[in-house]
Design brief:
It is a single chain. It is built from 15 helices and 21 strands. The protein has a 5-stranded antiparallel β-sheet. A 5-stranded mixed β-sheet has the order 5-6-7-8-9. Bound molecules: iron/sulfur cluster (SF4). The site of iron/sulfur cluster has 11 residues, from loops.
Length: 547
Amino acid sequence: MNDQPTATVKVEIPRPKRGEGQWELGYREPLNKNEQSKKDDNPLNVRGRILGTYSKKGFDSIDPADLRGRFRWMGLYTQRAPGFDGGKTATLEEEELDDRFFMMRVRTDGAILDAEKLRALGEVSQAYARGTADITDRNNIQYHWIEVESVPAIWERLEGAGLSTIEACGDSPRPFLGSPVAGIAKDEIIDGTSALEEIKRRAINNPDFSNFPRKFKTALTGHPSHDVAPEVNDVAFVGTVHPELGPGFDVWVGGGLSTNPHLAAKLGVWIPLAEVPDVWEGVAGIFRDYGYRRLRSRARLKFLVADWGVDKFREVLEVKYLKRELVSLASPEVPEHQGDHIGVHEQKDGKFFIGAAPIVGRVNGDMLVALGDLVAKYGALGARLTAYQKLVVLGVEAKDTDAFAADLEAIGLTSAPSNWRRRTMACTGIEYCKLAIVETKQRATDLIAELEKRFPELDTPISINLNGCPNACARTQVADIGLKGQLVLDEDGNQVEGYQVHLGGGLGLGANFSRKLRAHKVTSKGLDDYVTKIVENFLAEREPAES
Ligand code: SF4
């Protein structure tokens, strides 16, 4: 596999006085109900019960431990029951908000969605999801209104087209982010497609990786624009060039957002394409074996990396998991802005790719079927989803780019969006998410429309990320303007939907988390004027080239 010298350092990991539930240190007894549930039955087994029992006998036949736990390994969550406003939600347990319908996530893992896949995704939406479909910022298509009785037919249709919902949620290898222009872009450093496919083959539906302490997010890009938000993934592979060995990947570990955000630590190594899957298995193995399982709030890789430090993490990876040393290399330069690939761009083969924007990721069944038809009509390669709730159509002939872009516009996807449409993301929010406190998708859509009127031209990119709760599914802390849903007081002292404001976050060069401005809370109603004021002040007082 490689000719690197075998590492011989002995790694000492003392058993802490108070156990964190780390398997490798002997803490095997489940220390919370999630761990108990996973021990009681491997969550991957729930697929058999969905096919054999629950889809035939209906919602009421579902074992609660499957419904609120193991279903996630099949990409299924109960969605929020209608009728609860944010105020009531605050006093209810998550279980009390269960609807009899499900949200379903389909993973795409950076793969190209050809005409057949796009039509399958659209037809499932039309037939079983009341037309709903959202592009998430993790390369998923997310449906709503799914009934358990429909799941076998949905899986048959999706799997027939080469798509899957397995481990799209749960304490598992969550959907992988891949560069939307892998193997396509003229300026890419290295095409990581084969590595991502191999990681997928080894990891998904594999019992060895189906019980992590919590979720495990992977990103891989060989594009210099770092187009997969690598700083905020549990493990990321980022293209780099060794002066003698050529193109390969650096490895970044322990990034993540939510209530305790961490930027990933950079190992500063060079690994060849063929060894990326081994290193993925090593990092995933460390998380499985040494990750903290006692408290769910500490059960992400970022806490282990923060406690160990990057040198110890690398040493354990080399000595215990890879059994060889990695080649050291300074981490690659970071781009000023991460690529979203919007617009029309020439490919390395002379054809073109077109990056297009729906509004806050919201598409629908008709749009996906129509996109599949366009891909077929023009003989294009297909589309990939981006880490920004957008998509990129690949392999368009030069002579067809204008016509294709016009046809995209006609189905609701624009390749020339305003700053606001291009750089605003919103999570699922109170419409369907049980953890949400406020509405997000529609609120963001209205905000975009208003800002397009008030600031039709903008010479500096400004990003806005709206989240419905303190979690950070739409990456609140790494936007110029991050809005975290919570209840706030209006001018009459009533509790109403609103947002805690965070300002000045970003990824890429100078990546940092936005600052929470304590006094800055805004009601949902007052949001348009609040953002307007921020933008006006920025435009009036900025230094040259200031973001
Ligand atoms: Fe739900 Fe909160 Fe995530 Fe939004 S950020 S999708 S409200 S959990």
